[in-house]
Amino acid sequence: MVGKIFLVGMGPGDKSMMTGQAIEAMESSDIIAGYTVYVDLVKDLFPEKDFFTTPMKQEIERCRKSFEFAREGKNVALICSGDAGVYGMASPVYELWEEYPEVDVCVIPGVTAAISGAAVLGAPINHDFCVISLSDLLTPWEQIEKRLKAAIDGDFSIVIYNPSSKKRADYLKKACDIMLSSGADEKRACGYVENIGRECTRAHVCTLSDLKNESVNMFTTVFIGNSRSKLIGDKLVTPRGYRINE
Amino acid sequence: MVGKIFLVGMGPGDKSMMTGQAIEAMESSDIIAGYTVYVDLVKDLFPEKDFFTTPMKQEIERCRKSFEFAREGKNVALICSGDAGVYGMASPVYELWEEYPEVDVCVIPGVTAAISGAAVLGAPINHDFCVISLSDLLTPWEQIEKRLKAAIDGDFSIVIYNPSSKKRADYLKKACDIMLSSGADEKRACGYVENIGRECTRAHVCTLSDLKNESVNMFTTVFIGNSRSKLIGDKLVTPRGYRINE
Hints:
Chain A contains 8 helices and 13 strands. By secondary structure, chain A is an alpha/beta fold.
């Protein structure tokens, strides 16, 4: 019998932020596969499972191997931080699925960093919003620039994933400059969260012009408010609409 | 002693799609407050709790009453479908918080319909995306129109909340016309999901020009792919990037 692939969104990492479905999918799998760092987070929860890990940039190999395991009759939980369908393994798995049509694939939704980070900051995306990654590994920078501009044109709240890495230390600064030159006010309310859902969570609110000079890393999620967003105490709050509430 | 308000995102409704934190917050509360329909979904899970419900359009009264309960020393779980920070009660609660600064407020993130609906459809938002509500109750239609146009200009995948209601039966059609006239191809891959996470979940994929004539309701979440999205079998898949994968 052919096995099944569960694409499991594990949320920020802590078990308390996983859904019951996510835990059940891992429990009912023979193999838990994923990026080494995330598999290490669940090893203690499911010590009796087999594990298959690949390092970063070997994601496609990880997906293909999961199909091979399923073909051998094993159920595989392919785990992703946050949600598998937001910059995760869902689309590469479905693209490979054409070669393994006999395998059942099922996405188990999880709490992505836009949602878990927003909870820490207050209510930054309580109205229409965009999610944009600054990683230009798979996307040309010109496309990212175009999206940042469009997001300001539409007056969306903006969530930025992958704001920085060793090779891209100045990308958040570049992104802030694009948003400012697209018409966003220097005083636009912003914030960011580091290590969401872990012991060392760090949240900070500031203006867009200050954000430019903040030091962020690959574990930071950045939030830019829309033109109506405001700071209430240490919280970043975007009102639900443009009209005065009841 | 003053009580606490937990803004609980309960996901699509089924217990298996709630996080452990969300269940714990309801368990540790004296009162579960919310919109009647959602409170009914959790009454069976927590039969020993007190419940406080208000109908739709009395959200602000519900938030204020939660602060009053907290001031009396009660812990309150104010529950929202999906996530409290996405078109939910997080921002009105933080706005009222200025009047009740002694009350602790805490957002417990949940799986919003953009994430749970995407899981049903495959991988529609696996790259940069926007979330837009078509409800013009609190937002002027001109602003919604501007955002739809900006979302197409930036070539985002788009998730549409509140695509229709009795009074706004033709809003999805109007939105499709705006996206088409903003340069989106008629053949753009789209899909929608109705009653996510319940027994009667219904998913459908189609082109943007067909979407115009589909019948949707207030329990439907609509997904518009970006220019690279495609249908693979009955799944809507947006590739992770613009470059060819490894």
